[in-house]
C-alpha cells in the first residue's frame, strides 16, 4: 500500500513514522509511506501557502492554488489512483470500520490541514473526502493525519506480529465492543490479584469471561456501541 501525506510541517511526522509499528511496516515493505512538503508549492518569492479568508474572519486559510498542485504532484508520482483525504473537524469520524475500509485501498493521499482550514476549492478540485478524529479542534491536522495513518497501517497484513491481536482489541471483536481487561505478571500486586479464570488454563472459560467483560464494559462506558444489540450486565465483575 502507498500513503502520501501532504503537510506544511513534515518534521512533525518523521519520529512517528520512523518508529514502532509504522517504522517496522516501512522497513518490511508493507507500506510505502512518503511525506510531501507543502512549502515548495507556495506562491511568490516567500513561498506563501496561506491567505486571509474572503468575507472576513479570524485566522488564515491554506490556498487552493497551493494544495491542489501538491496533491496533483503526489498523484503524478504514483502509478495507482489515490483516494484523497483531508483532515477536518467537519469530516466523517474516523472509526475502526473506516480504518478497515481505507486499509483496502491501494493508495491514499492524506492532506493535513492547518491554520483555520483550507480554501473549499481544494477539496472540490481534488475530489477529496474530509475525515475527523473526533468532536474537538486541534491546532492543525498533523496529529489527526498521524492517527489516521497509524489506524490504517496496523491493519495491513504483516504490519503486526500477530493478526490475533487485531481480532481481540476494542471495536474489532465479534460484538464490536470494548476490549476486556487484561493482566500480566505479577500475579498479585498491592493486594490486587489477577482473576482466577485467567490462570485456570480453561480456554473456554477464559473466552467466556472476556466476552462477558467486554459486553459489561461496553454497556457501562460506550452504550452507543450496543445500539441494536442486547447489552450485557451493567457493571463488569472482576
What keywords describe this structure?
5-stranded parallel beta sheet, two-stranded antiparallel ribbon, Alpha/beta knot, 9 strands, 2 domains, disordered C terminus, alpha/beta, Trp Operon Repressor, Chain A, 8 helices, 238 residues
User: Mean pLDDT, as a whole number?
Assistant: 91
- According to DSSP, the number of beta strands is 9
For the record, what CATH class of the largest domain applies? Alpha Beta
Tally of domains: 2
Specify the number of helices: 8
Low-confidence stretches: 230-238
Strand order of the largest sheet: 2-1-6-5-7
Structural class: alpha/beta
- Largest sheet properties: 5 strands, parallel
Q: Which word captures the global form?
A: elongated
CATH topology of the largest domain: Alpha/beta knot
- The fraction of residues in strands falls at 15-25%
Q: Give the distance, in angstroms, between the N- and C-terminal Cα atoms.
A: 41 Å
Order of helices and strands: EHHEEEHEHEHEHHEEH
- The helix content, as a percent range, equals 25-40%
Write out the CATH superfamily name of the largest domain: SPOUT methyltransferase, trefoil knot domain
> CATH architecture of the largest domain, please?
3-Layer(aba) Sandwich
Assembly type of the chains comes to single chain
Amino acid at each position: 500500500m502507498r500513503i502520501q501525506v501532504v503537510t506544511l510541517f513534515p518534521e512533525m511526522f518523521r519520529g512517528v513514522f520512523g518508529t514502532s509499528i509504522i517504522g517496522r511496516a516501512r522497513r518490511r515493505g508493507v507500506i510505502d509511506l512518503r511525506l510531501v512538503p507543502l512549502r515548495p508549492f507556495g506562491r511568490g518569492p516567500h513561498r506563501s501557502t496561506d491567505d486571509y479568508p474572503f468575507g472576513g474572519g479570524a485566522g488564515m486559510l491554506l490556498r487552493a492554488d497551493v494544495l491542489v498542485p501538491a496533491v496533483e504532484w503526489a498523484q503524478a508520482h504514483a502509478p495507482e489512483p489515490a483516494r484523497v483525504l483531508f483532515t477536518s473537524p467537519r469530516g466523517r469520524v474516523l472509526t475502526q470500520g473506516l480504518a478497515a475500509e481505507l486499509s483496502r485501498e491501494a493508495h491514499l493521499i492524506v492532506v493535513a490541514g492547518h491554520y483555520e482550514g483550507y480554501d473549499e476549492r481544494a477539496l472540490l478540485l481534488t475530489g477529496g473526502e474530509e475525515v475527523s478524529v473526533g468532536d474537538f479542534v486541534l491546532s492543525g491536522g498533523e496529529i489527526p493525519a498521524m492517527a489516521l495513518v497509524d489506524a490504517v497501517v496496523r491493519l495491513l497484513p504483516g504490519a503486526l506480529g500477530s493478526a490475533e491481536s487485531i481480532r481481540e482489541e476494542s471495536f474489532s471483536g465479534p460484538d464490536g465492543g470494548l476490549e476486556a481487561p487484561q493482566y500480566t505478571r505479577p500475579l498479585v500486586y498491592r493486594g490486587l490479584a489477577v482473576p482466577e479464570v485467567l490462570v485456570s488454563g480453561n480456554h473456554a472459560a477464559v473466552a467466556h469471561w472476556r466476552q462477558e467483560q467486554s459486553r459489561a464494559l461496553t454497556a457501562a462506558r460506550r452504550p452507543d456501541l450496543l445500539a441494536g444489540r442486547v447489552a450485557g450486565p451493567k457493571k463488569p465483575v472482576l
